[in-house]
Amino acid sequence: MPQAPSPATPTVLCRGVTKRYELGARSVDALRGIDLAIEGAGFYAIMGASGSGKSTLMHLVAGLDRPTAGEVSVAGVRVDRMSEAELTMYRRRQVGIVFQHFNLLPSMTALENVMLPALLDGMSRAASETRARQLMDELGVEERAEHRPDALSGGEQQRVAIARALFFAPPVILADEPTGNLDSAAAARLFALLTQIARTHNTLLLMVTHEPAAAANCQRVIVLRDGVVAGAFDTTTPQEGKLDAGALALRAQELARPTW
Ligand SMILES: Nc1ncnc2c1ncn2[C@@H]1O[C@H](COP(=O)(O)OP(=O)(O)O)[C@@H](O)[C@H]1O
Ligand SMILES: [Mg+2]
């Protein structure tokens, strides 16, 4: 008898994920039971009101923090159960991280920033420089390779951060409001670049954004509300075709709205 195909291992799997921050006598339940399974590669938007838990979720998937309870797995491996040493390796090789604040080391050149994870990993200088320059070329910042971050525009710094995130071709890249500190023209260029990267690199790009026009370039939108997944929808449906930014914003707001 033919065997049923084994279900694909999700790239990102969250089951019953909670996160409580203790603040002295007070506590904040930032995540209250996140269930999420995303298979394969692609480009996903995460939306939701300020304070709904988007960044907290990114931190847990990034292995920067641990859930209070529940499972966080990436490519079939439990991130929530990793030792500190395993987390260090995980963050270096398995997940790329791009934040709103550009997070480049100010004393190093752009090129050195891109090479840093590889050098820390023991890769030769020559090999890591070749890979870093190739990625910087793809991202349009090769000419800025010898500059330090403070000599780069915000958009250029973010491209350098993306090149660094792509270095080891991780299964997941997390971008938490990557254009939050950019002007609208630079933001539009960065969104276009991220869309292209999602197409050309075999990775799952998870992007937190408030911009419906940017989310419209993603294949699916996941909406958080009060620390849970309020819902999710594809940006292209058989009935409606491709949602434009306005239709997408309405859809996301309906899900994000508190139910009281
Ligand atoms: N380090 C922290 N300590 C205490 N509370 C936090 C911390 N980080 C986030 N929170 C709280 O958790 C909730 C969710 O925050 P966050 O994940 O940053 O939301 P979002 O990114 O959707 O705006 C908020 O109420 C926020 O104030
Ligand atoms: Mg946030």
Q: Quick recap of the structure?
A:
The chain has a domain at 103-169. The chain is 34% helix and 27% strand.
Characterise the protein shown here:
This protein has 260 residues and is α/β, with parallel strands linked by helices. The chain has a domain of 67 residues. The chain has eight helices and twelve strands. The strands form three sheets. It has a six-stranded mixed β-sheet, sandwiched between helices. α3 packs across α4 and α3 packs parallel to α5. It is globular, with a radius of gyration of 19 Å. The chain starts with 11 loop residues before the first strand and ends with a helix. Bound molecules: adenosine-5'-diphosphate (ADP) and magnesium ion (MG). The site of adenosine-5'-diphosphate (ADP) has 12 residues, from β1, β2 and α1.
Keywords, separated by commas or semicolons:
12 strands; six-stranded mixed β-sheet; four-stranded antiparallel β-sheet; 260 residues; 34% helix; binds magnesium ion; binds adenosine-5'-diphosphate; alpha/beta; 8 helices; single chain
